[in-house]
Specification:
Radius of gyration: 19 Å
Number of helices: 12
Structural class: mainly alpha
Largest sheet: 3 strands, mixed
Strand order of the largest sheet: 3-5-4
Helix content: 55-70%
Mean pLDDT: 80
Number of domains: 1
Oligomer: single chain
Order of helices and strands: HEEHHEEEHHHHHHHHH
Length: 267
């Protein structure tokens, strides 16, 4: 009983002191640090990509890879300007050859994946694809993976405490599993709005038309009625979302219209 009491006291004090602030000024609940999330995500990402590789599902379509890497590279260049500390991230993009899956995701530390189903079913223009990728990069910039991992850990905290007391499990194991789980968990509406706002600006600064954010989600909404959209399970679409993106366009146009070079971060 004494061990349980000590762990409980430690857990409460740990949670109460774990808060950070996003780029939009929102306070985040954090059970684990962003660096811890990055470390755990690196392991989870490597395991996931190894699994896809063994199944022959990593795309070798060089034209598509070049297209995606060029767009992603331009966005990452601007992301590093927005958050200079991310220069040291191991930025990665992998394309999963799965025509039935309409999805894209990111993990902490700039590790991303895009499924060919999104390309084949949505048929996005470069401007629209940039909105998808900028949105995912923005989740990483705003520490949303660490936030989702923290929520996942917090919801099973009681079980974790008992586990530590009975068979010496540790929080690192839970965090590693949470990194994988976080990819499939839906983002909160607040987190989605943050990624929308940061992403549309990121894309505009990289030279991609902000109007594409609206046309992209219009396509998503139109196609979702006849398809199983994994992307919409974690990135819910709505008329209000489209209206909000549309309202951001006037503020984004000066970034888009700025005459400047758009360097590509090498992937």
């Amino acid at each position: 009983m004494k061990i349980l009491q000590l762990i409980f006291i430690f857990s409460i004090s740990f949670i109460s002191s774990s808060c950070t602030t996003t780029q939009t000024g929102r306070s985040q609940f954090m059970m684990i640090s962003e660096q811890s999330a990055i470390t755990q995500s690196a392991t989870a990402y490597a395991q996931a990509m190894d699994g896809y590789a063994k199944k022959g599902q990593l795309s070798n379509d060089q034209e598509l890879i070049e297209r995606v890497n060029n767009i992603t590279g331009r966005l990452i260049y601007e992301a590093i300007i927005m958050r200079p500390d991310t220069r040291n991230w191991k930025w990665s993009m992998k394309i999963i050859d799965d025509p039935k899956t309409v999805n894209a995701w990111s993990m902490a530390g700039g590790r991303m994946a895009l499924y060919t189903g999104l390309i084949e079913k949505i048929k996005p223009t470069d401007d629209e694809l940039a909105q998808v990728l900028a949105h995912e990069i923005s989740h990483a910039l705003a520490k949303h993976t660490a936030e989702k991992m923290s929520v996942a850990l917090a919801t099973s905290l009681g079980v974790l405490i008992v586990g530590v007391a009975t068979d010496n499990q540790n929080i690192a194991t839970g965090a590693s599993a949470a990194a994988l789980v976080a990819v499939t968990l839906p983002n909160s509406r607040v987190a989605e709005s943050e990624a929308d706002e940061i992403g549309i600006e990121l894309a505009a600064r990289a030279g991609y038309n902000p109007h594409a954010a609206v046309t992209l989600w219009q396509k998503m909404s139109k196609e979702s009625g006849s398809s199983s959209f994994d992307f919409l399970s974690t990135h819910p679409s709505s008329g209000k979302r489209i209206d909000r993106l549309d309202s951001l366009i006037p503020r984004m146009m000066p970034y888009y219209e700025e005459q400047k070079p758009h360097p590509v971060y090498p992937l």
